[in-house]
């Protein structure tokens, strides 16, 4: 089925960047369609607490994402979720996106905001115990580990903040980190170090997950001394970054060696009328605020592009 509407903007992805872009383009009276492979909110909904979003004292990622979705829809933005993108033509003047192998949508411009997915350790037992003790989402699974001992893997802000959050449930949290120092902000490091429920295995890496029906332990190796130990735990939460969801676009738009979208300061990609935004874009920091900023800039740039197309079309019709 082909949707005969030619939208002004199609946005691929409904995380913080995509929803922010949708708010801006639809409020600017541009016909906007968001196509999303998962549920609206993206990685945002996995965050238990957001306390550093300007103007909001504290909220959950789910609540913030839901508000952003409602805002976009209130301005006329259409959102279609839980679908699969099967083909794109971004180089033609009118861009097209095919979903589920049958439905085709067209637009003057496209904003790519596919986000990312949790990076895996890729060690024995990880795949086997995924969902049976191994998780990548504290918000989703934290309360399953009430009064149990768990491991948190990672040394950035996400790992440190979620480790502190998980102490509301777990009796003990062991942070396993491969370096002798953390990569998080000072306040996140301080909060973790001052929490009596948290212990640390620095310069260490998990070698294997062990269990029967469910996770029962992890084999951890100190990379400096070579010493290995078994830590008995019922849960492990892995926060070691994200992989951009851009594999589908590797032969379509320019990416770097890490699969990140390459954009300029106006969020333009190497293809005219195609923009990038959010965690899939090459940049040093990934926060909700930076995703929203990307989405805003991409939306304003896309609006300029669409308005120029319409101006030229008007000039031709009047000639």
Please outline what is shown here.
Its EC number is 1.8.1.9. Residues 7-295 form the FAD/NAD(P)-binding domain. The chain has 319 residues and is α/β, with parallel strands linked by helices.
Average pLDDT value?
A: 93
What is the share of helical residues? 10-25%
Number of separate domains: 2
Number of strands: 17
- Per CATH, the class of the largest domain reads Alpha Beta
Instruction: Provide the gyration radius in Å.
Output: 22 Å
At the fold tier of CATH, the topology name of the largest domain is FAD/NAD(P)-binding domain
Q: What is the annotated CATH architecture of the largest domain? A: 3-Layer(bba) Sandwich
Domain FAD/NAD(P)-binding: 7-295
Family: Belongs to the class-II pyridine nucleotide-disulfide oxidoreductase family.
Catalytic activity: [thioredoxin]-dithiol + NADP(+) = [thioredoxin]-disulfide + NADPH + H(+)
GO cellular component, one term: cytoplasm
Description:
This protein has 319 residues and is α/β, with parallel strands linked by helices. It folds into two domains: 2-117 and 242-318, FAD/NAD(P)-binding domain (3-Layer(bba) Sandwich); 120-238, 3-Layer(bba) Sandwich (FAD/NAD(P)-binding domain). The chain contains six helices and 17 strands. It has helices at 16-27, 61-74, 138-141, 157-166, 186-193, 288-318, and strands at 2-12, 32-35, 78-80, 85-89, 95-99, 103-112, 116-118, 134-135, 149-153, 172-176, 198-201, 204-211, 215-222, 228-232, 235-238, 242-244, 274-276. Strands 1, 2, 3, 4, 5, 6 and 17 form a seven-stranded mixed beta sheet that branches. The chain has a five-stranded parallel beta sheet with strand order 8-15-9-10-11, with helices on one face. Strands 12-13-14 form a three-stranded antiparallel beta sheet, with no helix packed on it. Helix 1 (16-27) runs parallel beside helix 2. The two termini are 35 Å apart.
């Amino acid at each position: 089925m082909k949707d005969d509407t030619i939208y002004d903007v199609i946005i691929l992805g409904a995380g913080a960047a995509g929803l922010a872009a949708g708010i801006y383009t639809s409020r600017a009276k541009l016909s906007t369609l968001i196509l999303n492979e998962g549920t609206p909110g993206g990685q945002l909904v996995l965050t238990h607490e957001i306390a550093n979003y300007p103007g909001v004292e504290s909220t959950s990622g789910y609540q913030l994402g839901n508000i952003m979705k409602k805002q976009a829809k209130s301005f006329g933005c259409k959102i279609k979720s839980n679908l699969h993108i099967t083909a794109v033509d971004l180089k033609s003047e009118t861009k097209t996106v095919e979903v589920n192998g049958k439905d085709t949508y067209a637009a003057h411009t496209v904003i790519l905001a596919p986000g990312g997915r949790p990076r895996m350790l890729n060690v024995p037992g990880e795949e086997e115990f995924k969902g049976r003790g191994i998780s990548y989402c504290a918000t989703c699974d934290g309360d399953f580990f009430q009064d149990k001992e768990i491991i948190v893997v990672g040394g950035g802000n996400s790992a440190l903040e979620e480790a502190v959050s998980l102490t509301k449930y777990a009796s003990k949290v062991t942070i396993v980190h491969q370096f002798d120092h953390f990569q998080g902000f000072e306040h996140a490091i301080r909060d973790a170090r001052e929490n009596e429920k948290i212990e640390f295995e620095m310069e260490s890496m998990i070698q294997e997950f062990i269990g029967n029906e469910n996770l029962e332990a992890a084999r951890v190796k100190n990379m400096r001394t070579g010493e290995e130990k078994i830590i008995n735990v019922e849960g492990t939460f892995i926060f070691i970054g994200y992989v951009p969801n851009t594999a589908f676009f590797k032969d379509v738009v320019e990416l770097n060696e890490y699969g990140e979208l390459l954009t300029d300061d106006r969020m333009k990609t190497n293809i005219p009328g195609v923009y990038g935004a959010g965690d899939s874009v090459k940049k040093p920091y990934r926060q909700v605020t930076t995703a929203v900023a990307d989405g805003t800039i991409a939306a304003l740039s896309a609006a300029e592009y669409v308005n120029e197309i319409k101006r030229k079309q008007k000039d031709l019709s009047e000639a």
